[in-house]
Amino acid sequence: MITxxxxxxxxxxxxxxxxxxxxxxxxxxxxxxxQMEDALEARELVKVKVLETAFMSARxxxxxxxxxxxxxxxxxVGNKFVVYxxxxxxxxxEI
Length: 95
Description:
The chain is an alpha+beta fold. It has helices spanning about 5-15, 30-45, 60-70; strands at about 20-25, 45-50, 70-75, 80-85. It has a four-stranded mixed β-sheet with strand order 1-2-4-3, with helices on both faces. The protein has a single domain, classed as 2-Layer Sandwich (Translation Initiation Factor IF3). The termini are close together. It is about 40% helix and about 20% strand.
């Protein structure tokens, strides 16, 4: 569990990164979750865009992703959300 100060720092760091994943009408599948876990292991902080064709909101998608891969939600604004998960091997972000 991260504190509000840690979340604020991560939110500031997320401003400078682009969304590397998109959720569309296909939704959230096992392959998507595996790719998210791999990206979080490599980067620790990932931004995702939820397209208008998706059958869920960004907040719903964020909750599902965080629950499935045991990540921390950082922010959810508009159609984008950011998640954080500490890397087991190579820690890049010091919070």
